[in-house]
Amino acid sequence: MRAASDPTALTPNAVPAGDGFYPALWRCWRRHLWVKVFGISGFMWLFFIGYFHLLRHPAYPVTVMPLTWLDQAIPLQPGWLAAYVSLWVYVGIAPGLFLTLRRLVSYGLWVGAMCLTGLACFYFWPNAVPPHGIDVSGHAGFALLQGVDAAGNACPSLHVASAAWSALWLRRQLTVLGSPRRWHVVNIVWFLAITYSTLATKQHVALDALAGMLLGGLFALAALRWGPRAEGGPQGAR
Q1: TM segments (predicted)?
Q2: Angle (CA) 177 182 184, round 5°
Q3: Residue 139 pLDDT grade (very low, low, confident, very high; cuts 50, 70, 90)
Q4: How many alpha carbons lie under 13 Å from residue 19 in its C-beta half-sphere?
Q5: How far apart are CA 95 and CA 81, in angstroms?
Q6: Which of 29-33, 51-55, 151-155, 199-203 reaches the highest mean pLDDT?
Q7: What are the tens digits of pLDDT across the range 58-75?
């Protein structure tokens, strides 16, 4: 156990006296900024190489995921497309709040393990959502979405898994920084909006979302227990 005087041993609300949440947030965000920008972008690029390869070259027959009563109850709602694509902003917030490269790398290894687990599922069990039979040609953005995020590689939903992972990690980071409660509410609402959007845009079915939530949640809980500590305030900038 680290001594209480260790400046890198952070606990919740470890923001120096007289320093507020927003200055601490800015301090974390600008620390190693370009490493974070290019690192997160590079990680996404590598992930999509593997994702699209498995999508276009399934190793086994593709299973069509069954619909549940929830899928039948939720109609196509084009207005949720913005929430769906907002994931690519959401996933960058938690790692953007790390102060040290060691913890940033450890975070990346854990989330990489989660994504590799999802890709392994797609390799051994290729699957796709059933055709929804809805003409989306009149809805802006849907043609592009279906071109870059096709209906294959559906279960577990890595969209939901990434959102669940990010929600739990961002909760920890906000707690460490002494965030006002409203930002915790924003975090929860954003996660729920992304999850619901996967069903409302018909990119996933309910079973995909449930499996993705379990995948992301389990890996996040494991990483929070055995992975890098959350950081905040200048004490962690060493």
Answers
A1: 33-54, 74-93, 105-125, 150-170, 182-199, 205-224
A2: 60
A3: low
A4: 17
A5: 24
A6: 199-203
A7: 899 999 999 999 999 999
